[in-house]
């Protein structure tokens, strides 16, 4: 049993925080017979009054003994009033957090187990800093390792289902759901259920067929098909794209954005500044190249397809596989062709699918 009076879990990703909290709660309550000995209190609040209500309900739950005298477990879940928001900054909320701190300090971990899960959090706040010292504290960070986190979630779900997914399929899936961890898990479960136990590894084609593009995902099936350099798959993917979409500009924009990165990667590969290994591009190689060539990119630190050094090495490793196969001149020809396709759809707005098909035939024949 932890010596600290309560457990605090926070992080950048609400799904990861919630799942970590769920696992803690399940472990702590597995031997409790009475359902009244385990309580979950919703910590979401839109104003100070709702913050007060959530803290009062939590305090009541934590201070009320279980009916049969066994240990009690209380989870204050999905707390959002620790964020840098109008509610989080309100003086009323700060005063209520002082009251909550007084309650948490007096908890006896042997008689009541308490968990708080919060996302997002303002790390500058005194209550957060106090929690770091006073609780069994865990901070889950996705950040730059978001792709690796998503890949790990996919592998975990596949292992549970007794199947596997190819590396290319994993990368495609991450792109299609725009790195959303909750969608990653749900779509992986859908794929493994469809594939069945003991089936062949789940490949790109199944992901392309079953998983839609969510939000502003950078990956479109047609873009992946194009950069596979396979004309038949590209034409088929274009047909599917235009079955549900009448607009080609987002697709052309995705092709052009990826091509910009491919051009930069090809130059760096040709210069020997980057090496493509079995695990893609190493982070150390990318950092070394950035020190040498980064000054040519105006020092921008924001993620941009105009600056290869702002991209995740894991993602670049996938693109580098394509860049290594396509000569620099051909990549430049692609960029010119995309520009001409943009001009063509302005002249022929009712023939956008045909313009894209002509583009594919021209570039991939």
TL;DR?
By secondary structure, this protein is an alpha/beta fold. The protein is built from 16 helices and five strands.
Strand and helix layout:
Elements (H helix, E strand, L loop, with lengths): L6 E5 L2 H16 L8 E5 L5 H16 L8 E8 L6 H4 L1 H15 L6 E7 L7 H9 L1 E5 L5 H16 L5 H10 L4 H15 L8 H7 L10 H7 L3 H14 L4 H22 L12 H11 L19 H11 L4 H20 L4 H13 L1
Parallel strand pairs: 1-4, 1-5, 2-3, 3-4
Helix pairs in contact: 2-4, 6-8, 7-9, 10-11, 11-16, 12-14, 12-15, 15-16
- The CATH superfamily of the largest domain turns out to be P-loop containing nucleotide triphosphate hydrolases
Known CATH architecture of the largest domain: 3-Layer(aba) Sandwich
Q: Spatial order of the strands in the main sheet?
A: 2-3-4-1-5
Assembly type of the chains comes to single chain
Number of helices: 16
Rg estimate, integer Å: 26 Å
Query: What is the general shape?
Result: elongated
Q: β content, as a range?
A: 5-15%
**Main sheet summary:** 5 strands, parallel
Highest CATH level, the class of the largest domain? Alpha Beta
Sketch the topology as an H/E string, one letter per element: EHEHEHHEHEHHHHHHHHHHH
Structural class: alpha/beta
Poorly predicted runs: none
- What distance separates the N and C termini? 66 Å
